[in-house]
Amino acid sequence: METLISSFMDYLNYEKGLSPNTRAAYKRDLSKLYQFLKKNTMPLDPEKISKHNIMAFLSWQLDEGTANSSAARSLSSIKSFYKFLILEGYTKSNPCSDLETPKVKRKLPRFLSVEEVDKLMEQPSVLLPLGLRDRAMLELMYGTGIRVSELLSLQIEDINTTAGFLRCMGKGRKERIIPVNQTSVEWIQRYLFRARNSLVKSHLERTLFLNSHGRPMSRQGFFKILSGYVQKAEIQKEVSPHTLRHSFATHLLENGADLRAVQEMLGHVDISTTQIYTHLTSTRLREVYQQFHPRA
Known about the structure:
- This protein is mainly alpha-helical.
- The protein is built from 14 helices and three strands.
- A three-stranded antiparallel sheet has the order 1-2-3, with no helix packed on it.
């Protein structure tokens, strides 16, 4: 089974083009299944693993306090693994094909108000190269709704400041084109002309945003920068890089944007993923109604 898991990882990498983080999640789920089966002297041959073995594994996870969302992801990983095994001819049946995914209560994502976004944007000291870089990064994230991994992998040539759009590679290595507003374009241009040259160490480096050592910035580095500005702005909310993405989508829909257009800009495969933001805007409408209608 370990060999087959390894082959599956190669398949996810070379044929499906999934990101390292996604592949790591698949591997973690399948390794937990393998260890559970081994510890409980259950079959390790995928052809002999039964539906009851899989159900026992999922029940054990939930008994151990695993969240429904994590158990649901585990089942999804196992189903994908078996689809691969059937595709490659290692087995003929999928023991978990008719197992229902544990119900997941979807949490409404946190987002910032427009006023909080404005306050956050004012925090970087734009007279310094690093502050100018930080302002450009924050403006671009909020202005386009891209993921932090997409932001940090952007190359200089991925942004067309003249036409006002950027090209990014999303999940599953799917490319999408996103419009960039004039404010973001202006901050990117300032960063390119006044700051990036003081950070870059090699003329061969084409990554757009660099750390103080002239190398591509890490996710941890960006998170630390963002946390510092959130604290400085005295925003009393938990703010992650994804919060800017949520704010982008929420503010667009609150101002009448088409759901399909927002789905395309966010790079969501399924529109049901985007629809969670409609719940946010509905909640906001109710709050406004309760606050301002004389008979509410």
